[in-house]
Amino acid sequence: MKPPTQLKRRQFLKNVTTIAGAAGALRLAGVSATLRAYGQGAAKPKPVILTTDIGDDIDDTWALGLLLKSPELDLKLVLGDFGKSQYRSKLLGKFLQTVHHAGVPIGIGIDTEPRGDGPQAGWLKDYELSSYAGKVRQDGVQALIDVVMKSPEPVTIIAIGPMPNVAAALEREPKIAERARLVGMYGSVRRGYEGNKNVSAEWNVKAAVKACQKALAAPWDITITPLDTCGLVTLEGERYQRVRDSKDLIASTIIENYRIWSKNNKAPSDAAEKHSSVLFDTVAVYLAISQDLCRMEKLGIRVTDDGFTRIDDQAKQMQVATEWKSLDGYRDFLADRLTGKPS
Hints:
This protein is an alpha/beta fold. It is about 35% helix and about 15% strand. It is built from 15 helices and 10 strands. It has a 10-stranded mixed β-sheet, sandwiched between helices. Strand 2 (about 75-80), helix 4 (about 85-100) and strand 3 form a beta-alpha-beta unit. Residues about 1-40 have low confidence and may be disordered.
């Protein structure tokens, strides 16, 4: 196995059991009350856009499911980013239609490299995007711009993949940065993959460095979860069993995709029956709802040309989730949300 500093997100499934127990003792006294408050407030749901490289790592599928299970968020558009535009759009379409959320518009991303499909392609057999009951925008970049510019209130862009489409939207209409905020899964600040003390060139940054540099330097409010926090999130034991065995439609559709992904990703044959992979992207969705379970720091973050995210006081300031206050509290939140259990 390659050293952790060279690993990509997509190489982690075999290592999750060592991560799952990290920080298990850190449960805060106020966590239960915080979780009970989710979904009960009278606040109007926040309009959000999801940009995602769904169909490569399975955590994007988990993140989409979590977003759909979060009443605090009003999903206005999903946009496949980082190539494979037809594959990603079809996966978004079939997932949304399967779980009865076909009212969500889909934006087709820029048709760039990489092309082709990925490890969830088997789930798409015989599915055509033309059968999607909702609206499909051929120009996904313009769809993102339109949602932001026409919204009567600020839009949260939840970005969980490399960002060529986000960068293109900023280039085409810079004013979106005045009317939106960015919440994303990016970087490695003090810890790398698997909690390693050596920081890593994290995949979402390294895969499209120029796009990430543009997006993370834009004049909007930015919140990120780097590997320091999101790289520790897995579900196993009773929490995972509840999701795996749940009759909830969104949870069961995630698990169906996870089983297909595992087989095609050369994971251990029983992986999808025992534990999740590392669920990096779900934390970005959580941060669009709340920051209560994380320690947040305001840091200047500079994206280097080789894909690292360095702390730099002269760089763009953003909110960074650098540590968990309660990792187990988040695992409970995630399992409860996905299974429909009231918090």
